Structure formats: C-alpha cells, structure tokens
Amino acid sequence: MAKIVVYGDPVLEKKAERVDVFDEELTRFIADMHKTMIKAQGVGLAAPQVGVSKQICIVDLSVGENPDELHILINPEIVEADGAQKGEEGCLSFPEIVTVVERPNHVIVRAQNLAGDPFEIEAEGFLARAFCHEIDHLNGVLFTERVSSLKRNMIKKKVSKRVKAGTWE
Hints:
Blueprint: H1 24-39, E1 44-46, E2 56-60, E3 70-82, E4 85-91, E5 94-103, E6 106-112, E7 118-124, H2 125-138, H3 149-165
C-alpha cells in the first residue's frame, strides 16, 4: 500500500501531469490507490496524495463495500457544473481536519478509463462534491483554498501546532 502524503508536501500544490500510457502498471497503481483509500476510510483519493504527480483519481462512496461504486477517473476535467451545495469536507492529506466547503451540486466530468477510452459521467450531491474535491487535487488546489481566508488561517494554525507537537503525519 502507498503512504498518504500530508499537507506541506509540495506535490499536493502542483498541477499533475497527464497520463499517456494505459498499461498493467497503471492498473496495479490504481488498485493500490484503492486499497490505500479503503484502509484510510476515505471516499476519494488522488494520485498526488500518494506522491505521484499524475492525473488519476478514484472515488468510492461505499469505501470498498460495493465494487460498482468505484469510479476511476484518468485525465478528468469538469465540463459542466451548476447548482450549489455546502457541506463538511475532510481530506486524507489533512488528517482530522474538517471544514464546510461550497461546491457545485451537479457536475459532468469527462475522463478516460483504464483502457484510455474517453467517457463522461454525471453526478449530483455528495458524488459531485467528491469528484470536485479529487479533481481539485489534480490541479494542485486544496480544499482549504475553497474556504474564507479566516478559516484557511485557522486550519493552518491547527496544522502548525500539530507539526510542532510532532503529531502531523
């Protein structure tokens, strides 16, 4: 299993590279990402969160309970977004930190599958939120950028205290 990198690692704040090779290595990497995400009890994970700057993310709202709910998005982009929803969001790269974030309520995402074939998927509600969160990671945007500067500073102070205490990992 891969190790999840936490806030402070530069890979989290840079735009990931497109995937051009669709092979067994990619399939194995994504399977490893899924195991890592399930062990961490997350509903989504982006490749930069495991230290790999590639345009790959997965979302599984069932956290491994239902194989049909695993969404693999390679080179994804949001092509349509509308509506609005506010809700609590956490991030595996920000352990134990949760804050309210506003996201679109409905999105259409264009991506590629494991074979490199393009497809579009439509999502609403929590699934749309998860897609937006993970695709943000691929663009080097953290969920803390989606909140007010006051909230962002509060989160940074919490992180700083934990770094000083040696509990940020």
